[in-house]
Amino acid sequence: MARYATWQTLTRESPCHPVGVTSSESALPTAPQAATAPQAGRQKPRTDPPANRRERKKLETRAALEQAALRLFAEKGYEHTTVEEIAAEADVAVRTFFRYFASKQHVLFGDVAHQRINHLRAALAASPPDETPLQAISSVLDALDFDEDEQKQISVRLRLLERQPTLISMYLVLNHELRLTIVEFVAARTGLSPRHPYPLLLAGAAVTSWDTALHAWLADDSAPLADLRRQAYAALTAGIPADPPAPA
């Protein structure tokens, strides 16, 4: 009975709340007030860091100079185009031209080929280690696609080379850079000396396949450039063993 009386007493003291807790203490907490949304007009627009804007501006200026030069070379001829005309066509000062290019000869290939070679170098270094050098080179070259605008620029440059044999030296320098890039990769992958015939042979096949494909495509562009390159590389490497010789 005492226990029953005690229970009745407790329930009478707090019919709706636990013992020792008042109604104010047991009240549900109020929901936090939502943060006031900032006014749209007061939000600051997101902008790129100044360094990024400067780099983008440099790339845009360089591209404008290259495109202006190619247009004038095609319209007036290489020899009849001056640096002053290229700068005016790109709407920049002559001194701006020389910040990017040493001469109009250097603007002929611009950064297009050098950027591709740098990309090729990085892609070769990242190729799966279980691929043979032959496979890695073929896969990386296949991935170097050119869009329609790039192919038009390639066509203009190559046709200028045909009309201006004195410019071929620039083309040969680029081919030499490509050859060295592949030689270094094959030597590092196989442990062979860069002067060993195997790295030199693979590099020669890669460079020659591109050169062959470019000139065949220039004569007849009905076949895709990538297919021509692939066919030339397959033919040139048909007799090269996939497994490299063991280092001495």
From TrEMBL:
The keyword Transcription regulation is annotated on this UniProt entry: yes
Region (Disordered), start-end ranges: 14-56
InterPro entries: DNA-bd_HTH_TetR-type_CS, Homeodomain-like_sf, HTH-type_TetR-like_transc_reg, HTH_TetR, MftR_C
Basic and acidic residues: compositionally biased ranges: 45-56
Biased composition (Low complexity): 29-40
Pfam families given in the database record: TetR_C_14, TetR_N
Superkingdom in the source lineage: Bacteria
Gene Ontology MF terms in the entry: DNA-binding transcription factor activity; transcription cis-regulatory region binding
Segments crossing the lipid bilayer: none
Start and end residues of each HTH tetR-type domain: 59-119
Name this protein carries in UniProt: TetR family transcriptional regulator
Protein's organism: Micromonospora pisi
